[in-house]
Design a protein that fits this description.
One of its GO terms (biological process) is phosphoenolpyruvate-dependent sugar phosphotransferase system. By secondary structure, this protein is an alpha+beta fold. The chain has helices at residues 16-26, 47-52, 70-82; strands spanning 2-7, 32-37, 40-43, 60-66. The chain is 34% helix and 26% strand. The protein has a four-stranded antiparallel β-sheet with strand order 1-4-2-3, covered by helices on one side. The protein is globular.
Length: 89
Amino acid sequence: MIDTTIDVINKLGLHARASGKLIEVTTKFRSSIQIGKGDKLVDAKNIMSLLMLGAGKGTTLRLVIEGADEDKALEEIQTLFAAKFYEAE
């Protein structure tokens, strides 16, 4: 199991388009992927749950991944966040 944090660094935070891109990544994996603030974790494969987080720029999110492909899932999620969801600034 991986239990780590990830920072939201893109200008608009985890808004609809960014959440959609995150869903594209998370749904490729069999692992359970949860994201949230502190103990309030939500399913990172559910767009409505992601939008309800209200994670703006500068938010530190907890990321919990468990399963056979957890390392690859973490790598791709970190890449997406680091690339600021491939949005123009």
